[in-house]
Design brief:
Length: 244
């Protein structure tokens, strides 16, 4: 029964939206959700993935699926009585050979597959109700995902700000010693060294803005730009960073 119901869910998920909104289809009763949809065996779980089944439709159906009733010895005995004699003989041979665990697993899987029944009869519902609930679950999931993404983005921004502040503190502690280091980087005449020098100058600019020393900083940067005006790659980087 689960197999048929999953196939119906897949077809519902693939159906054209306009067709489903027709009045007759809106009030059309949906098939009863079989018990145990929230505890599908591996084979049916693989089928859900293979069919690319709408997981929100499945979740909506799960809400209308009764939990499985535990299988007792009476259920097992009734199921076992219906099994072919050759299967029973094979299980006895396996028990005699010491393969108790294998037989127990076969019996448990067979009984669970055949006796997947719930404690209560499922309440009737329509296709429109199922789709409406699936849409609500989808919206809730999207909102949750958006909140998680926003929280992750906020954490990244906070971490980046903390790293930047730590870097600025290190630059500030170096004081005037940072300027000869910038000059040494420029004299390496490599793209990587230019990038490092510009990054340090950007940090110095932010510190100068905080301390009200913008004019003094701008004057020193203009001196650097003039001194190294023939280094086109460096000057281009200084302009791109808004330093000159």
């Amino acid at each position: 029964m689960e197999l048929l119901f999953l196939g119906w869910l897949a077809k519902l998920g693939w159906a054209d939206e306009g067709l489903l909104e027709q009045p007759d289809n809106a009030v059309k009763p949906a098939p009863p959700a079989p018990a145990g949809l929230g505890d599908l065996p591996d084979t049916l779980a693989a089928l859900v993935e293979f069919l690319c089944l709408d997981l929100q439709l499945l979740a909506a159906a799960m809400e209308r699926s009764a939990p499985l009733r535990p299988i007792d010895e009476t259920d097992l005995a009734a199921w076992l009585a219906d099994q072919p004699e050759e299967d029973k003989d094979q299980w006895l041979v396996q028990v005699w050979a010491g393969e108790h665990a294998m037989v127990q697993g076969d019996l448990a899987r067979g009984a669970r597959a055949a006796l997947r029944v719930g404690d209560a009869e499922p309440e009737p519902y329509t296709v429109a109700q199922l789709r409406s609930r699936a849409d609500a679950l989808r919206a809730a999931a999207e909102q949750k995902q958006a909140r998680a993404a926003a929280a992750a983005s906020h954490r990244l921004r906070v971490a980046a700000a903390e790293r930047k502040e730590a870097r600025l503190r290190r630059v500030a502690l170096r004081g005037e010693a940072v300027w000869p280091h910038i000059e040494a980087l420029i004299m390496e005449k490599s793209a990587i060294a230019y990038d490092q020098a510009v990054t340090m100058l950007c940090d110095l600019k932010e510190l100068a803005d905080r301390d009200g020393a913008e004019q003094r900083f701008s004057s020193r940067v203009e001196t650097i730009a003039e001194l190294h005006r023939r280094k086109v790659t460096l000057v281009r980087r200084l302009k791109a960073a808004g330093l000159v």
